Amino acid sequence: MNDIINIGALTKTYILGKVKVKALRAVDLKIDKGDFVAVMGPSGSGKSTLMNIIGCLDTPSSGKYLLENVDVSRLSDNQLAEIRNKKIGFVFQTFNLLSRSNIYQNVELPLLYSNNSANRQKKVLESIDSVGLSKWIRHRPNELSGGQKQRVAIARALTNDPSIILADEPTGNLDSVTGEEIISIFQKLNRLGKTILLVTHEMEVARHTRRIIYLKDGKINKQEAVTDPIDAREKLKSMPKLEEDIG
């Protein structure tokens, strides 16, 4: 069995006063190790709820969620926090960087939370180098462009060598050229074996992945394989030169 994520009959219901809101309705989903998946759907379709449960930020009301064959739907809050730190890397639209900390300190954070001191400096420097920001290591977020901030966020997500990277609208605050740069980094990580789930509302972004999942009214409406994913590296060749190459 090659699936890293195995979800079955997953439901999530929120209680808002006297009203029950069904955010997810009996969702079945399998994601293989090394896949690159885009999750799409209108507002209120359940995208964020599904990603929060996959990211162990929330728990289902019913159903199963196996992450690397472990039923995480039955784990305690402390156990979920440990999984978030060690197995899942998060990349957000708004970057979520610490403004008073430099790039090195921001990228180092997951290692500090996990008390992982083995080869800490080496891991941080390798993560920063993998996104092409070694020259900016002592700069703070307010000295960086939007694309550079997102690269810091990706480096931070990589520091603990997670099994899965969850990216929530990672190009949403970026111009088209910089967005292609960021997608190119995700494609490079996927070629290196990382499993990536990316939430987006842009079909142009989704077409860079290998598979698209469409959500509607809390259910998976359809899935489709991307037969010829857009290669962001090739697309960048026809776009204006960026200030730094991404490697």
Give an overview in words.
With 247 residues, the protein is of the alpha/beta class. Helices cover 32% and strands 28% of the residues. The protein has one domain (33-63, 73-237): Rossmann fold, CATH 3.40.50.300. The protein has helices at 47-54, 77-87, 103-113, 120-130, 146-158, 176-191, 203-206, 232-237, and strands at residues 3-16, 19-32, 36-40, 62-67, 70-71, 88-92, 164-168, 195-199, 211-216, 219-225. A hairpin with a 2-residue loop joins strand 9 and strand 10. Helix 4 packs across helix 5 and helix 5 packs parallel to helix 6. The relative contact order is 0.18.
Topology:
Layout: E1 3-16, E2 19-32, E3 36-40, H1 47-54, E4 62-67, E5 70-71, H2 77-87, E6 88-92, H3 103-113, H4 120-130, H5 146-158, E7 164-168, H6 176-191, E8 195-199, H7 203-206, E9 211-216, E10 219-225, H8 232-237
Parallel strand pairs: 3-8, 3-9, 6-7, 7-8
Antiparallel strand pairs: 1-2, 1-4, 4-5, 9-10
